[in-house]
Design brief:
GO terms for molecular function: oxidoreductase activity. The chain is of the alpha+beta class. The chain has four helices and seven strands, in the order αββββαββααβ. The N and C termini lie far apart (36 Å).
Length: 129
Amino acid sequence: MTDANSLKRRVVSTVQRLVANPVARRLPITMIETIGRKSGQPRRTPVGGRLVGNQFWLVSEHGQHSQYVRNIKANPAVRVRIRGRWRSGTAHLLPDDDPIERLRNLPGVNSALVRAMGTDLLTIRVDLD
């Protein structure tokens, strides 16, 4: 990763953690809940994605550097809040999937933000129970 990408990731992550995510958690938007790999506590992160059948697809803008992706690696059992309803599932990291192509099939505004703010895109599929 270049120094510019590293700086971009740190700035974007800090703004999200301190400003955007606390506000978004109070809104009725799509959210993924992981279990903290160190704390063991539920961790909720606002995400954009699309429900396709019994799968929820999303793209992480910072890939392996995202805290929720690190939590998924430690424990793939997650919950996703879709249209106000929590659903349990198993998350799968898909490094071989083309995240740019995947974003073309996900909600437009979120996809544009992920492309603009992202540094290391990674596709995630959640198989819902």
